[in-house]
Specification:
The structure holds 2 protein chains of 2 kinds. By secondary structure, chain A is mainly α. Chain A has a single domain (10-208), classed as Arp2/3 complex 21 kDa subunit ARPC3 (Orthogonal Bundle). Chain A contains 9 helices and 2 strands. In chain A, strand 1 (58-60) and strand 2 (64-66) form a beta hairpin. In chain A, helix 3 (39-55) packs antiparallel against helix 4 (71-78), helix 3 (39-55) packs across helix 5 (80-98) and helix 4 (71-78) runs antiparallel to helix 5 (80-98). Chain A is globular. Chain A starts with 9 loop residues before the first helix and ends in a 6-residue tail after the last helix. Chain B has 2 domains: 3-104, no CATH class; 109-177. Chain B is mainly alpha-helical. Chain B has helices at residues 3-18, 24-37, 42-71, 76-99, 102-105, 110-140, 146-177. Classes of the chains: A mainly alpha, B mainly alpha. At the A-B interface, helix 1, helix 2, helix 3, helix 5 and helix 9 of A face helix 1, helix 3, helix 4, helix 6 and helix 7 of B.
Chain lengths: 214, 183
Amino acid sequence: MHIPDGFLSPQTYLPAWGLAAGAWAWAGRGLAARLDERLVPRLAMLTGLAYALGLVMLPLPGGTSGHALGVALLALVFGVRLAFLAYSGVLGLQALLFGAGGITALAVNALAIGLLGGAVAVGLYRLLRRFGEDLAAAVAAFVSLQASALVVALVLGLQPSIARRADGTPLFFPLGPEITVPAVLLPHLLIGVGEAALTVLVWRIARRKGWVGP
Amino acid sequence: MNRARRWLFAYVAAVVGIGFVHDPGALAALLGAALAGAGPARWRLLRRAAAALLLFNLSVSLAYALVAAGQGRPLAEVLLTMNLRVLLLVFLGFWLVDRVRLLDALAGWPLARLVATLAIGQIGVYRRLLDDGRMAFRSRCPHPGAVDLARQAGAQGGALFDKSLQGAEQVAQAMRSRGAFDA
């Protein structure tokens, strides 16, 4: 669901880059000590999966695209910090190699999808796991996708209010939240079901193979 | 500062600067300048950029056209500005990747380079595996039905995990031998 280049105003993406820089520094702290030849292959594999999922996308009139993310899976297996870093790398490569997403929008995308999505997934999973691991993983994946989609839709929908000419003509993304929110959220309700199923499937494999945790 | 880093900084400066240009004529001139600067690769890069954003921008442009028509808002200038800006930004990104090795540009940032190395390595693994699987399936089953496709997708999904893990282990061992995990 990432936002492409050219849709966000500098008033939006420059502060977001500042915020993301702090978040990346926080996520990268102590990372070198955690990474070893056991963790890195698993991280690379699931990061590659997230990358592949992000490329099978459906353009949405709300200014973004619909696709599964794999962020909840990354966050459940490796924690929020690693998921955020890994997904930020995925977004950067998708932007530069395929023109999917963008460099100006990278920080907003990373914060909304990688950080918020990962945090919602881990928080919900911890809250719900007493009702069953699979159910908790499924709900966590579904809700985290919706949370990210909502933030992306709101950021896009606010652009006509943030950056416009004196006569009200929008300078960047031209559609308001009354269009972006339903246009982005409704397809993601369906995509979320697929995301939840995929997350549970891979989560089971990850637990069986002992990939979970550092 | 190496050449790749200078390109990266120039790209970032251009991308930020373009965000402050709102005149379609100026954006078209900048696109023309970028095309001229890109040399013989220009049309290949332009085709890639146009293909990357075509469906996406078309859906947004149509949605805005409907809204603007219904509410009497200005149409042509908004759409021209938005689409030219997006095309220019995507073109510059492709031009950057065409001109420099991304990992060289990230040489001064070990964490970014590590993440990029892992992701680029896995992209190659996934692409190879998918191509191999697709060609093998096509040779075995020239006219697949829905059941064949589902069975193939399931088998390929399982194989992807095992083989990509194996590929990533090789990358990790190569990184270990080069001191990537030394504190």
